[in-house]
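[Target chain]
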Amino acid sequence: MTGVQLARYQARLREALAAFGETSTTADDVTAQLSKNFPASALGWVADATWQGPVAVPVEQVDTSNQAEWAAASNPGKVAKMQAKLRARLETSGHLKPAILVRTPGAEKDIIVDGHHRFLATVAEGQHTVWAYVGHVDAKTGPWDELHALQESVDFKVSPESVNYRLAVDPLQSCGTCAMNNRRVCDRITWRVENDHSRDVWVAPWPEQQVKG
């Protein structure tokens, strides 16, 4: 994308935001979509963002600087299935479920909060835009950065060894006090947890508080 094209895209984005502004309907739609895979306690920030969409966002406008770290980057099978789904949707002039993007203050590109597989499938299919919601937030970092750690989908659950599952040193930062513990079933791992154990990521039962265990 050239500098002129980028400027035009950003101008259209500003115009759309000015025309439609912050609407609870859009924020509610984003929350409803994310709540299918993430705990409600991690989504409070959505209501505070200014949302646009869903719209077609140029793929060059998406930050891929950490793509190698995406779980989707090591899951080509799921990306391939998403490609097939995308081809079918394109034949009927439809779209995949919107990706969720966030634009932080001063940033030149959007970061993907949810929809990494859909984005990779879009690029692999040679599409120039990805269908997405874009949320403008007022801080450079925030709970959206760690949302992937709270993914409830079984596709993202991991083994005990990979998260250093062990007896908790601090009982106040244990599986028993973690927001991801739902009756000893963790949102992130594949086995029943013991309340006196812990793992590398612990999420406090209060909104938007996450620390390393």
In short: Confidence is low (pLDDT under 50) at residues 152-156, 206-213. The beta strands are 50-58, 99-103, 111-114, 129-136, 166-167, 181-182, 185-186, 197-198, 201-203, 210-212.
